[in-house]
Structures are given as C-alpha cells and as structure tokens.
Amino acid sequence: MACTTFLVGKSASIDGSTMIARAEDGGNGPNPQKFVVVTPDQQPKTYHAILTDVRVLLPENPLSYTATPDVDSAAGIWAGAGINGANVAMTATETITTNSRVQGADPFVANGLGEADFLTIVLPYIHSARDGVRRLGALLEEYGTYEANGIAFSDCDEVWYMETLGGHHWAAMKIPDDAYVIAPNRLNIDQFEIESETTLCSADLETFITKHHLNPDSQGLNLRHTFGSATIKDTVYNNPRAWYVQQHFSATSNQTPIDQDLPFVQRASRKLTVSDVKGALSSHYQNTPFDPYGSGSLMEKEQYRAIALNRNLETHVLQIRNHVPFKLAGIHWLAFGPNAFNELAPFYANVTDTPIRYRDTPTNFDPQTIFWLNKTLALIGDSNFERYQELVARFRQQVMAEMQNILLSTKSTDNLEAVNENISETMFANAMVLLGKMTVRGSRQMKLRYDLSD
Predict the structure, then answer these.
(1) Prediction pTM value
(2) Is residue 288 a contact partner of residue 306, using CB atoms and an 8 Å limit?
(3) Annotated catalytic residue: which of 3, 86, 122, 201?
(4) Which sequence ranges are marked TM in the entry (predicted)?
C-alpha cells in the first residue's frame, strides 16, 4: 500500500491554477524512475498488459504526453503521471482499500487492468478531465481491474478524483474549485450524490448497491462506508496522514489521528502554492510526538506512517496554469527520491524530449543522474536529521527561488526543451553543492576519529 495524493482546485490555489499531485511510493528496493515524453509515433496501436495478458485496441491520433515510468519495464510501464498535448493531467494511481461485501458482489478480475496500465491507455486520448474519467470508466467496465485504486485528472478548469469499486464499478467526483483534498491509501470519497453535475459513476451503481445491500448507513450514500474500510490498520497507516495535513491547512481542532471519518473535501485557511503541496507531501509529523526525527518516545515515533518515506520514488505536482500562453500552461513539477531531502523542478510539458539527467536514469547507481543523486542526499540526511536539516532547508528554498525565477523569465514558447535543460542543470548544480556541504559537515563528526590536543 503506497502513495499519497493531494488535489487543489483553481480557486484554492494562489495563482488560479489547478494542481494534482502524488508522492509515488514503492517497496524497499530503489526501483529507479525516469522522466520521458511519449510522442504519438511511440504510442502503440494495441496495448499489451505485462502483469496480465489483456490486449486493448487503442484509438487513432494519440496526443504526446509526459510520463514517469519505471526504468525496469519487465513488470510493465507504470507510467505514473503526466500532462498531454491538450494540457490535461493524470496521476495514476493511489492504492486504496475495499471490503469483503464489495469483493463478494463484484470480485477483482485476475486478468484485468491495473496501475501499470492506466495512464498509457487513457492520457493520450483525452481532452478534458471529465474525458479522462469517462474513458477510464469505460475501460474498467469492459476489462475489469485486479486491484483498488484512486486516480486524479485535471485541466485548466476542473479537478476530478476517481475511485475503482470492486472489479468493474467506479465513481468520480469533481473537487470544488475552492477546496483541496489529501488522500492516503484508503477509499477516500465520502458523501456522494449519484445524480449530480459534479459526479460520475458506473451506470448501474445505484442498482448494484441496492441489490447487494452494500450501504450500511440509514441515510445518504457514503462511498467510504459502502465500498471502503475502517480497520485498525487505517488508524495507523492512513488516517494520520490526512489528519496531519488537514490540521496544517485547515486547523480543525475536533479531529484525531485515528479518526475514521476525516472529511474528504477540505477548505484551507489561505491560498495554496506549489511549495505548500510539496511541503505536505514531504511531511513526517513535524512538531508532534509522532515525528520519526523528533523527540517523542520510540513508540510514538513509530506509531504512524508518514508521507515522506524512504520508499518515495518520485513526487509530481501537475499544474495547469491559466492566464499564460497555451504552450506554457502545463508544468510537470518533479522530484525523485525521499521527499524530506529533495525539491521539485518545474518542467514545461509541451515538449518533445526531457533533460538527460531525468530521462536517462540507469538501473545501477550513477550520481550524475538526479534520481541516484537524490537517493544519496537522502541517505546522508537520514543518518543525522538534526545535523543536516538546516542545510536541506536552505537548499530547498534556494532551488525553489531559482526555479520560480526561470518560470517567470520564460516569455517565449520557442525551444522549451532548452529551458527544461537549464532547469535540470540548475537542480543538479544545487544538489551537488548540498552534497558537498553535507560531506564536509558530516566528516567533522565521524566516530572514527581521534582529536589531538597538541
């Protein structure tokens, strides 16, 4: 169970942009990631799923799109997230929960589709966020899925969050323009209206719920209650992440970390920035007893699963901006590695290629690439968080300032590949400076030393 999703409506952001973001997590192995552009000539005509044997005939005239797939594609593409040529964004997926009632009525499909497949067969063919929901919904109904997932779509106006319900059913909700969402690894949508302009779902969802007696509530429809879970694991693995972020942005004093009914949609006390989103996805319960780097007891520090982890593979903020030229609107913000020690780089999505240091990640260690360099910084930083946290904080502030300056200075839509290359090299240079400072500071504190008094 991995990943944490963060969504921001256009009226909730500081600049009127929409943002969908996710910290993509994996297992304990490195699982290197890369950042690529898939052009129409590279998109297959028929898609063959690797983990199953499903084959999907794809539409004509695909759009180009950015993606963050696994370097090792032996188990599938796992494209992760991207923005297409129509400035529509998609992140796939957030692993979520289900329950035995749902699985009994609509079991998972062993030979269906899943996270490894979704982005590749959906993103190149959609021209709005709603299009994305409808296309993926149709695929789920036809082919089924072997797992429970949450998926987000956005364009310049709307943000949609979609969840799979059993093997073939699904539901999606438009996030209010003035709201944000923090979604951990559980079924997240709560109150849901089937007949609404701001929802979409399987055509037979209401009948399916009634026929199989799935709704435990006496009034209304709460998808989390009906299709999700409320387990002890949720109280330590999922709910605390939502609690911490909601406390930070909304200061709701009546909530606790183990609350099973934390609201899906929240309003922040101020407008949210890209840095706010990154900060939330880099959080580890700072200023609480539950911070693994804090001063709480050992039990407290190990009690709850944080968002920032050694298992963070890549983190993206897909921002679709208004009030800028079309080719400058889509920004694929990207950071590789554990989120407590990295920073986002903003890449223009309307390009034909990506920078080498982000694109050509090898399977084996190479600190000349951003993925492996960030892994190195995290390893050193984690060895003594107190010693290095000031250096990391300065690095992040300096990098974000330089990245914002590059974006503000970009007026022409010509040769955005060169702008992205400049962004990549700026990130690499700053990260190498940080590595040097951490090495110098750490070497002074090595245990293998003997101080002379002469």
Answers:
(1) 0.98
(2) no
(3) 3
(4) none
Residue 241 contacts residue 235 (beta carbons within 8 Å) = no
Cα separation, 273 vs 362, whole angstroms: 32
Is 37 in contact with 347 (CB distance < 8 Å)? no
Burial (CB count within 10 angstroms: exposed 0-12, middle 13-18, buried 19+), residue 271: middle
156 has catalytic annotation: no
Half-sphere exposure of 110 (CA within 13 A, CB side): 0
Pairing relationship of beta strands 89-95 and 81-83 according to DSSP bridges: antiparallel
Measured CA to CA, the distance from residue 268 to residue 251 in angstroms comes to: 9
Cα separation, 161 vs 189, in Å, equals 8
Residue 6 neighbours by CB distance under 10 Å: 25
Q: How far is CA 411 from CA 8, 232, 407, in A?
A: 26, 52, 9
Question: What whole-number distance in Å separates Cα of residue 118 and Cα of residue 407?
Answer: 30
The C-alpha atoms of residue 393 and residue 372 are separated, in whole angstroms, by: 20
Cβ neighbours for 392, distance < 8 A, ≥ 6 positions apart: 340, 341, 377, 381, 434
Helix (H) or strand (E) holding 206: helix 205-211
Where do runs of H (alpha helix) occur along 56-128? 100-105, 115-122
- Please give the pLDDT value at position 453: 65
Contact 109, 164 (CB under 8 A): no
Cβ atoms of residues 21 and 81 within 8 Å: no
Q: Give the tens place of pLDDT for each residue, 143-196.
A: 999 999 999 999 999 999 999 999 999 999 999 999 999 999 999 999 999 999
Element (H, E) at 162: strand 159-165
- Whether residue 454 is predicted with pLDDT greater than 60 in this model: the reply is no
Q: Comparing C-alpha atoms, which of 414, 395, 399 is closest to residue 348?
A: 414
Nearest to 409 by CA among 423, 394, 424: 423
Task: Please give the backbone phi and psi of residue 211, each rounded to the nearest 5 degrees, phi first.
Answer: -60, -40
Burial class (CB in 10 A: 0-12, 13-18, 19+), 423: buried
191 φ/ψ angles, rounded to the nearest 5 degrees:
-65, 130
CA dihedral 318, 78, 228, 214 (to 10 degrees): 110
| Kind plus residue range of the DSSP H or E element containing 430 | helix 416-443
Other CB atoms within 10 Å distance of the CB of residue 103: 13
Tokens of 415: 């040769």
Q: Which amino acid is at 299?
A: M
Give the Å distances, CA to CA, from 77 to 74, 144, 383.
Answer: 8, 19, 33
Tell me: pLDDT of 66 over 90.
Answer: yes
Residue type, 382: D
What domains lie within the chain, and their CATH numbers? 2-363 (3.60.60.10)
**Rounded Cα gap, residues 274 and 336, in angstroms:** 16
